[in-house]
Amino acid sequence: ESMLVPPCLEPLLSTAFFSVCRTHGDAARSECNMYCLDCSGDAFCFYCRSSRHKDHQEMQIRRSSYHDVVRVAEIENVLDISGVQTYVINSARVLFLNERPQPKSGKGVSHNCEVCGRSLLDPFRFCSLGCKLVRIKRKGDATFIFGSNNEVTMDRGEGMSRKISKEEEQLREGTQHQIYPSTHSPPPNSRRRKGIPHRAPFGS
């Protein structure tokens, strides 16, 4: 298990965020929403960051629907997050740290988290980093470590899901991919070349 999970992950997932900093409580940015991967200690605020964690590997935790999220750009180089559902929130791609309770999924849901059963938007395996961690502890068929020496068996579905999600990401982020085939008619504002006009013959 130690070969599949970095030591900083479990402390991160169990940390309580968004309390007021005891040292800088009167300051404007005193909310404890930062985490240091090198120290693996408690959450801290913006001012503690500059005074205590200079040159450390840190990340900012954000909130979405009362749950903690982290931007993919801040964590994808630290952990192998493959298989975890990502979302676009406020123009940034994020993922959830821990499982979110959900009523029983309704009919028509085609993708579910392998651990908690939460319905997913895309064919991923897990709804959060926490659920992926639980799966590793139970089965050992996933990993957070890049280039792990262990032979981790990944089904074809996960590899396919990463490809699909990448294409979706490109479309959602507004890149220059053609959403519609080129056979569709041009937009109404585009100029259309008129044909050669033909006059009606003169009557005799």
TrEMBL record:
<feature type="region of interest" description="Disordered">
    <location>
        <begin position="155"/>
        <end position="204"/>
    </location>
</feature>
<dbReference type="Pfam" id="PF04640">
    <property type="entry name" value="PLATZ"/>
</dbReference>
<protein>
    <recommendedName>
        <fullName>PLATZ transcription factor family protein</fullName>
    </recommendedName>
</protein>
<feature type="compositionally biased region" description="Basic and acidic residues">
    <location>
        <begin position="155"/>
        <end position="175"/>
    </location>
</feature>
<dbReference type="InterPro" id="IPR006734">
    <property type="entry name" value="PLATZ"/>
</dbReference>
